[in-house]
Amino acid sequence: xxxxxxxxxxxxxxxxxxxxxxxxxxxxxxxxxxxxxxxxxxxxxxxxxxxxxxxxxxxxxxxxxxxxxxxxxxxxxxxxxxxxxxxxxxxxxxxxxxxxxxxxxxxxxxxxxxxxxxxxxxxxxxxxxxxxxxxxxxxxxxxxxxxxxxxxxxxxxxxxxxxxxxxxxxxxxxxxxxxxxxxxxxxxxxxxxxxxxxxxxxxxxxxxxxxxxxxxxxxxxxxxxxxxxxxxxxxxxxxxxxxxxxxx
Length: 248
Description:
alpha/beta; Glutaredoxin; Phosducin domain-containing protein; actin binding
């Protein structure tokens, strides 16, 4: 070595992710960090668990008729367990269904009929227009359908300017959704849903998002759904289960 030259450390490029003997030595001495564990086993474990849960819950959301169609495909005890579960759900809904109509509110009774009532059940208030309003008329029609269908939810109605002095028709229909004494959601007009073309399904989705309705609620099934459509869905569930098993 030239005595006139200072010692200069050599810079060597190292890829810490490479599996080499040299990298093992560097890791041992703490010069480069330990290589993180491969995520593959964790991913495979998560996929296996997801398939297991999907298989165990394959009958969730199916009504009594659909369960009956699966008698030749499923274990009798397993089916009976879900039949009892569906019967209990239907019984619970029937017990809670005490409203079943649209309640026309008076302003002096608002606190009792809405705020206080929401401590025991979901309460939906519809503020309607004083004059002709297409969206308001559509909302009134939907309110009647919803009240008959979901008797455990209280559907109320009052003209906007009778509830709030000077409330403009352009803000109607307004939907106020109460639970536990508080407003959980407010919609001014049906713009957030589907305007004058708002459907029963649009409002049901809103109630599901708020957890006022559960995804598996048997009342959400369309009564006009064709029988062969129902069979197709059941067959598709079986196919999905079989495809999942190919990964095991």
